[in-house]
């Protein structure tokens, strides 16, 4: 019986790691910092480019298109989470359709420092509550 319980716990951990990986790239809830946003964007771009190229040689243009759409979804979801960090709603991403000024404004918002306090989208991803605190008054 303990072996079965151990196997179930391992299966549960695998499912949880897949869910956390899925939510890290595809969901729009919460906030992420600049470095995390840029890192995830590069990982998504490289992964989708590699698998898109492989799918292109195997399945043709449709295979490449699938991974292009997957990357666009990841990029939009990550941009929305990044906008949440600076206090903007995800719908602010629609301003990108304004010629010249829209993309520039979005880039400024994406590289801007996030709010240092919790906002309606969640807590500050850069906060370090668990960091060592020293009381020098004592």
UniProtKB/TrEMBL annotation:
Top-rank lineage group of the source organism: Bacteria
Membrane-spanning residues: 40-59, 66-84, 90-111
UniProt entry keywords in alphabetical sequence: Membrane, Transmembrane, Transmembrane helix
A Pfam family the protein falls into: DUF805
UniProt key word Transmembrane helix: yes
A GO CC term attached to the entry: plasma membrane
Entries under InterPro entries matching the protein: DUF805
Keyword Ribonucleoprotein carried by entry: no
Protein name, per record: DUF805 domain-containing protein
